[in-house]
Amino acid sequence: MRGIVITLLAGLLATGSSASPIQGASEIEARQSGGNPFSGRSLFVNPKYAKALETTRQAFLSRGDQTNAAKVQFVQNKVGTFVWISNIFLLKDIDEAIQQARAAASSTGQQQIVGLVLYNLPDRDCSAGHSSGELSFAQNGLNRYKQEYVNPFAQKLKAASDLQFAVVLEPDAIGNMVTGTSTFCRNARGPQQEAIGYAISQLQANNIHLYLDVANGGWLGWQDNLAPTAAEVSTILSKAGSNAKIRGYSSNVSNYNPYSTNNPPPYTAGSPSADESRYATSLGNALRARGLPTNFIIDQGRVALDGARKEWGDWCNVSPAGFGQPFTTNTNNPNVDAIVWVKPGGESDGTCGMGGAPNAGAWFDAYAQMLTRNAHSAIRADGGGSNPPPTTPTPTPTPTPNPGNGGGGGNCASRWGQCGGQGWSGPTCCAEGTCTVSNQWYSQCL
Question: Which pTM value belongs to this model?
Answer without folding.
Answer: 0.82
